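Researcher: Good morning. I'm working through a list of sequences from a screen, and I'd like to move beyond sequence-only analysis. For each chain I'm collecting a predicted structure so we can compare shapes side by side. This is the next one on the list. No need for commentary yet; just the structure.
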Amino acid sequence: MGKYPSYLNLSEKEWQKRLKKVWGFISPCKLCPRECGAKRKEGEKGFCKTGIKPFLSSFHPHFGEESCLVGKGGSGTIFFTFCNLSCVFCQNFEISQLGEGKEIEIEDLAKIMIYLQNIGCENINLVSPTHQLPQILSAIYLAQKKGLSLPIVWNSNAYEKIEVLKFLEGVVDIYLPDFKYGENKFAEKFSSAPRYFEIAKSAIKEMWRQVGELKLENEIAKRGLLVRHLVLPENLSFSEKVFSALAQISKKITLNVMDQYYPCWQALNFPSLSRKITSKEYQKALNLAQKYGLQIWR
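Model: Good morning. Structure tokens for this chain:
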């Protein structure tokens, strides 16, 4: 048995190898499936509007996540600014779309991780991290040298490249992806995400390969995959296709079917998204998830 969390088992040689390689993906940028090619080291910014420094909005113990992430001390959540999607109904649009936040140094991000540990958080929860992966990996490297020993939660939209996710193997213990759409047409219309369904399915399959089923100790998540799916009005998320895809990966996947959609940001510009979901719509989605034999988070 190695040390826990997993990143404490990485050798100095392995850390340096990964860091060198991952920084090669940022300029021209090919971190996410868009592969926009922005020369971020030269000040050019692509779809995510982010440079080479960590860019974050806030950090604090968060008590609104799943109970297995919250525990007694809360989930040590770091909200990164901007995103590699552009969801018209984003509930954090001030951060993801309007750029609320500021750039900091990598050393400061490492200090934030240590601070969250020192105040009793259960984990380090990285929200919308994909477009800042090299900065984050560098900060984890520095933080573990200063005593960081909390599991890392990778809280993403699943619009990820397998090649890039592999840099996180043995670093991330808990993957928390949101599998948003079962139909590409609506992923592109509402989130500007071409080929989202195939990309998300492949990314989640890779996450499953790395960490497997959700493992709890004293009701706290220690390792594994927990997938979220937000039910949209009029089944615009095509939930059944999402559940079917997950079941094809493994019926042992834990799934949180979420009912908290509400119209915000630009959703009112789309009549089909301009209302909350009904209890009937939610129950139908829940029944479908159960039909496919997935482990439903309650």
